[in-house]
Write a structure and sequence with these properties.
Number of domains: 1
Helix content: 10-25%
Structural class: alpha+beta
Order of helices and strands: HHEEEEE
Radius of gyration: 14 Å
Distance between the termini: 11 Å
Largest sheet: 3 strands, antiparallel
Shape: globular
Length: about 100
């Protein structure tokens, strides 16, 4: 199963009893930390052999609202697509990821 960060966060935001915190970490390996930008961005396809991404090229451009995650570690998930950090302004005050690692799916 592949789940994008935004899909997972939408599901988790619906939980009103605090359950989302635990499920969020188990499902996507991180917690939602805002939308630092809504603009044209470049998406890097990191796993071109995954069934959900093998039809894509190495990268593509989209206009999207990028989700930022805190306490995210690649040790807990398999990232198939990520944001090309060079395609956005990382000096925006809402950007909190010092490591510039924005997993998208």
């Amino acid at each position: 199963m592949m789940m994008t960060m935004s899909e997972a966060v939408e599901v988790l935001e619906r939980d009103q009893q605090g359950y989302a915190t635990t499920i969020g970490l188990m499902t996507i390996g991180a917690y939602f930390d805002g939308h630092p930008c809504h603009q044209d961005v470049t998406v890097k396809v990191e796993d071109q052999h995954h069934p959900a991404t093998r039809h894509l090229g190495k990268s593509f451009q989209i206009k999207d609202e990028i989700y930022q995650m805190k306490n995210f570690s690649r040790d807990r998930v398999h990232v198939v697509m990520s944001l090309d950090a060079s395609s956005v302004d990382l000096t925006l005050p809402a950007v909190h990821r010092a490591d510039k690692d924005f997993a998208l799916a």
